[in-house]
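Exam revision sheet. Question 4 asks you to relate a sequence to its structure. Input first:
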Amino acid sequence: MDYLTVKEVAELKGCSEQYVQKIIKDGKIESQVEYNEKNRPKYLVPVSALPEPLQMKYYGKLTSEAQLCLQKVQETAVPQKTKRTKAVVKKEFGEFNAEERELITFWTDLLREWQIRRREYDNCAEGDMVFIAETKRLRRAYLAEHNISISRDILYRKYKAYRENNLQGLTENRGGWNKGQTSIPQTVIECFNALYLSDARLPVADCYRLTRDYVHDEIPEYLPFMASERTFRRLTDKIYPAVVKYFRYGEKAFIDDCAPYIERLYDDIEANDVWIADNHTLDFITRTDSGEKTHRLYVTGILDAKTEVLVGWNITEAKFYLTL
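Answer key, structure tokens:
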């Protein structure tokens, strides 16, 4: 995944860098934080977090820079200045291990197929989207097994490495923007989980807002590490459903939906062989005949296990226990 700096996002949106920083701090756009040598925060925004028009604008810029479409014919031969580029240490195919050679072969074949397929469309962007969707569908198992992600910016980056004969670039599954990034402190995560995993059933937006307020007031040194609301929403997806059921909906809901149970087999029993009895406390208060005491009555129902017919019931001042 590619990341953009605040300046690059501001140029895409056509606004000031201060405005971009404000919406990042307000949690309106997802971002990552890393620190420079002077311990100053630097915000990095993933391309996928931008609105679709801005993503298309960014991809169009990458397309023109990588010159993936047909190259324009130069009308006049203009001497070009020699550009100084950083030297890349290139390795031969035989210097990689077996797993890396397999990955290089995969990307080489995929990029060649991509260049052929995208020319079948008048719009290169449309061809890219169709090719990516088909690749994810047809090669889903292989991509999952080797932890490979496919997107337009990844294809552009891999194709650039392929054209430069940089085999090392074809073996890297991740870009360099997110190296050394700072994760959310465990204290902040615990604060958010304490709000989310409660019987108040607060929405994620409210949990995020209250967590941010707590960090701002109590532990402001962690404020630069606060991620966006979308990031915290993804954290809730990693919590086991049984844990969510117990803390947000109560013990009964947990037992009914998540706890282990045994199914009764009814093939070998007949009517009146097995009875099931259970007590229930009535939701009102009564007085004794003398009027001196108040109490809540209990109703006991008895069901036949085979036919599920109510065979008897009783109301008492104390729980009723059936004995045979």
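Marking note for examiners. Residues 73 and 79 are 15 Å apart (CA to CA).
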